[in-house]
Amino acid sequence: QVQLVESGGGLVQAGGSLRLSCTASGRNINRNAMGWFRQAPGKEREFVAAVHWTGRTTYYADSVKGRFTISRDTAENTGYLQMNSLKPDDTAVYYCAIGRLGSKWPPTSTGAYDDWGQGLQVTVSS
After folding, report:
1. In Å, what is the CA distance from 36 to each residue of 9, 15, 20, 126?
2. Straight-line distance from the first to the last Cα atom of the chain, in angstroms, rounded to the nearest whole number
3. Which residue, 2, 20, 36, 123, is most buried by CB atoms nearer than 10 A?
């Protein structure tokens, strides 16, 4: 079982930036993809971004492409989501997740992930 601890959420004005972090413990995740999802009130959890286990390939939802950057530090067992040019529509609870080994790339569905963080509130004011 992997434990995921997220940090970096909060309140920011439109146009601002936030950096989310997700640190894994309990087992090595170097061969797993990592992903970020978000869930706004009254909506389903949606895919935001994923990074391949190699760290060399990334994939983004169209809604965040060009504004968000996903990355990982294998040595630190940590993943990051840099969010720039934030909009009020980005307001949601953000979750990091560890991809299931052997899942098809890109892993954009929640079913492709086995372990989830506790969620971070990100609020963007207009």
Report:
1. 13, 20, 10, 23
2. 39
3. 36
